[in-house]
Amino acid sequence: MIGADNVAAGLTVRRTRLFDEARAHAKIQCIPPIQLPMTMEIGTIGATLEVVTPGVAKQVVRVTELPFLIGRGSEAGNHLQLDDRRISRRCAAIVAVGDGYRLEDRGNGAGVFVNGVKVEQKMLRDGDVIDFGLEDCCEIVFRNASDQASIDDMLLRLGSLPEVTGPQSTKGLSRLNLLLEATSLLHSQLPLDSVLGSMLQHAIVITHADRGLLLEPEQGGPLKVRLARDGKGEALPPESFTPSQTALKQALDRRAAVITDDLNLADAALQNAASIVVQGLRAVVVIPLYATPRAEANESEARDLGQLLGVLYLDSRQVTAFTALDRQILDALGAQAASILDNARLVERERERQRMEQEMTIARDIQQALVPQGLRDFPHLAVTGGHAPCHEVGGDYYDVFPVSEDRTAVLIADVAGKGIGAALLTAVLQGALSGMTIGADPVQVFNHINQFLCEHSGTGRYATMFFATVARDGTLEYISGGHPPPLLLRKGDVTELFDGGSFPVGLIDGAEYTSTRVQLEPADTLVMYSDGVTEAEDKNRTLFGTERLREALVGRQQDSIEDLRRHIVERVNEWSRGTAQSDDITVLIVRYRTPA
Question: The domain 188-350 belongs to what CATH superfamily?
């Protein structure tokens, strides 16, 4: 018969081996699945940056020295060089503070944001998302290997507990094994509900609970039940389970777990709670699950444990005696459940970003298909144009097409808004305007488009437009729909075509449009542009304006129209150098010439 001492020694050896395996297991697997593998050598900086740019593969950059400078281009000595002219050259920096890292705003024009909040400086934690307050701009995810050792630390704390022999030792080992299984769930490829169900079942086994719930907060509403299980792991209908609201409130108010193994010893409020009395409950465990704690610049912010992700709730009609090991394993299990929910939230956000990126790709494809891919000259017209969107998909549109044997149409439009909505409205406009190629009257087409948009597109869907036809004999007939009036360059002088004070198309129900005729002379040049040209701002927020555009054209009658277009764009870029482009810049130029 084996002696008690040998049994205790065997259990101790088994626990030590399991503890060593647990530490190795945690070291290998404690990196969440959405992270990229990282290596940390002794004496090196254990931080990396994941640079996520729309339409570009994710880039992983190692933080090799501190301070680590971030900005546009290499002129400022940036370690991470971002290719976006809206971002300042001296944008931000990551510096060492104690054993952590702090992000500092070094002068980015639109500011620096961490997790959507504008900051001057902020201590960074693993998973923090850095952006620069710009739409369709890159995001930087901060990764810190030292922040990923929470399970390893928990196992170290568990390993420091006093040795227990006999049945309690076996119980502790089984609990530790449950923790390891729960940790492995974090990295499984199973569906989320399956992982959460297994996690809930582990919690029920550890607590010997009769029932278990996983609750999630609804936006602006109460907690709702996501999963419910009985003591055997079978699914329960959520309506059959009434959790103690008093225990839930205590846990949420304290922002800490409420673990009561004997309600006869709990405070009066919990003992006398109606749901506890009616259901005859004797033990309740409530563990609120929060997002990863974020270190802040001051003590009050440092105490903020982040966003509530959910609540793990368990109860029993039997008294349950929790050991110190049980309580620590429950804490670790709660941390794992929070990590799973946090990762699920990040994955969902990434999926949403990918969905939006896919929609933007669709919108870009639509727009690229609509914008002329290389304009051709006509016997009586030389034509050039260019478009520089401020976002991936802009609202500007231009086109040149023949409407008859001796007339050519030129069009420039600026659709209100950006993105896929603007691209779709542009497609509607192009389809409606194509009717002019079969002899439709332009004024009637304009009136029809205006009425159609007012009735169907909803509030805020309209477009400014300038449409003109140029005949072989130089007759220019045009309709203005609230668009900036084109400039006419004639013999070195610049004048503005009168627009008659018209309205954007789709803005005013019942608006009537009229056409105006002028006679062009050979070498007359018509410069059409979007308001992104005249509304470009310098560092003092002063607009480029129509007068500067006129000055850019004066005396340049002999320039080719392509040189003229480039000159306009260069003048605008020089004016707005150092500031973010706030609107699309589109220029369309036609020059009348007597046909041979």
Answer: GAF domain (3.30.450.40)
